[in-house]
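Aggregate trends can hide what the representation actually does to any particular protein. In the encoding step, the backbone of a single protein was reduced to a row of integers, each denoting a local shape. The record that follows shows the chain in one-letter code together with its fold in token form.

***
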Amino acid sequence: MSRTVFCAKLKREAEGLAFAPYPGELGKRIFAQISQEAWRAWLAHQTMLINENRLSPLDPKARKFLETEMEKFLFGEGSAAPPGYSAPGS
């Protein structure tokens, strides 16, 4: 049986994650308050941020930037696309 959470991003009940997808306290918070649907949306947004900003996930500054953007995307006002970005097909 799948677990449900009240998703902080979607503002509704949805299927929860099977495990904490990130280490530490932030990972515990994501596991408790973020749905699978919202996490997939974050992964897509994160990919766009990495590609558009030409980030290296090995760079500590890039990892800190992505963690900050993840918190804003999942729990805050949202994470904006880089200036000048236009989604594929638009």
Summary: The chain has a mean pLDDT of 91. The chain has one domain: 4-75. The longest strand covers residues 4-7.
